[in-house]
Amino acid sequence: MRHTKRIPLIIGLLLASSATAACGSSSPDTAPTTTAPTTTQPSTTSPTTTTTRVGATSTVQVWFLDGEHARTGEEPLFRAVQRTVTPPAVAAGAMNALFAGPTAAEKAEGLQLILSGATGYSQLHIENSVAYVRLEGGCSSGGSTMTIAGEIMPTLKQFASVDYVKIYAPDGTTETPTGLSDSIPFCLEP
Fold first, then answer.
1. 120/96 Cα distance (integer angstroms)
2. Tens digit of pLDDT for each residue in 156-181?
3. Structural domain includes residue 18
4. Distance between CA 118 and CA 187 in Å, rounded?
5. Residue predicted with more confidence, 67 or 47
6. For position 54, what pLDDT does the model report?
7. For residues 23 and 83, what is the distance between their CA atoms, to the nearest angstrom?
8. pLDDT above 90 (res 148)
9. Among 3, 150, 159, 183, whose CB has the most other CB atoms within 10 angstroms?
């Protein structure tokens, strides 16, 4: 009778010992082992110390010239398409997407990027509800009323923090550099 009571006790001790070994040992002779994760997918839960998740994205709109509307004079001349950007620099992401131009499918639908001689932008910042951006490369309207300003202004004004946009020429000039108003450089005038 005595031996029958010891068997469950011995089995219980063996199970507890096995569970401890599986979880890692605290003895100095054996170091616990760790296994690296096998996936590179972003976490679906956000850390408690930050409000931005790794891999989070935002959808923004980017405006391009509608070539058919420009040809016929039908409004709107510029049409918005969606792009995915990574926070926190969503305005810069939208500008990068603008300068990347329309996709092949969007080009097939007649959308065009008007660069007006610009090859890029710099010095983008938003201050007191005004977005400031400087064109790089060149700047010329070519006598047209449809310029890169028609793409940049709505692309930046979609953000709640932007009411006005001031576009500067590569030489750093714009027609109305101060105040709460939109501004384009003289080189974008028709």
1. 8
2. 999 999 999 999 999 999 999 999 99
3. no
4. 11
5. 67
6. 61
7. 46
8. yes
9. 150
